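Record 1 of the preview.
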Amino acid sequence: MDRAYVISSPNVSLLKSGANFWGRKLSTKSFYYPSCRGSKASENKINVQIQYYPLKFQPSTFNHRYKSIEGGQKYAENNTKYVVKAVTVPSSESESKSSNSKNTGDSIKNFLAVLYQFIYPYAMYGQFAATISATLLAVEKLSDISPLFFIGLLQALSPHLFLDVYVNGVNQVFDLEIDKINKPYLPLASGKLSFRNCVFIIASSLILCFGLHLMIGSPALISYILLNFILWTGYSVNVPFLRWKQYPVVSALILFVSSTFIFPITNFLHMQTFVFKRPVVFPRSLIVSIVFMGFYSIGLALSKDIPDIEGDKQHGIDSFSMRLGQEKVFWICVFLFEMAFGIVFLAGATSSSPFWIKIVTSVGSFALASILWYQTKYVDVTNPASTRSFYSFNWKLLMGAYFLLPLTR
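->
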């Protein structure tokens, strides 16, 4: 049975003295009572609030008469009713459990948000779109869009995610001091992600990337992983004979080779030879994709360094933006992007595809080129935030172009 023990206090003891409580309210007091259930006792906290209200002309067990000795004046009867309110407050143990559960959930959400920012989401989406586009180049007829195709697509997509995490992570580790100037918002540079956790994520991603590719067993995908691992490790790692990003021509060449040749060709061959078991061929759409990416990848390589000129200058990285100036490099990039969209426009207009496909590719590429040109008037080449936004915007336009390329047959 539950038992409650009221702890006496000065306010409660006034009940016995007969003092006047008219218009007053007693303060709230807290006490504990043990609840015995079985052999184990728990403790609950009770808030006791004593209130009293005057009830005139009603009998009460606490009626008292007083006379003034000095003035002989009678005082009216004082009738007071006392109400005790008890409110159960959660015990400290349950509060602690609720708080710990909330803190754990918040920690997981924060970590996922930091990880999302760590992997450069706009680049990841671009790689996913590029993989889908390259695998669609191997589709010859509508019946090829089958469960077999989606299995092959999943085989190509899954390991690419881990490779992107590795590439971006290695770059952030060795660019830590530069990023504190150029990109202080990045998780590692801002301190949101510790160096130890960053290294753990990078190492785990690399192991998973190679492990998955070896399990799948596609020669084209294994070649893709090995070549990009060598190129992008040499691009970022600061050891003798490496750190190729400090040489502007070599830096642009790495992105050009990876995006123009390695990525589309290996993903196309994976679907063509490993999934569909067909002989090696190079269709017109693959050639158009290679030429398109030749222009677009150089534009991306040059525009990437425009907002980073301050940090590059302090750390001795001689980029094209340092040599030629930000505005000149900006307009070179715009010219390269427009040339790339022009290639898709011509390829779509002269393709042997049905008329509606010609309309889609031509109008689509023209629309992307127009959007790009319209956006240029809002770019301030001296503002890092503006040029960085322009760089990520070009990745979004690239994703739109990726879905037009398989139609240029």
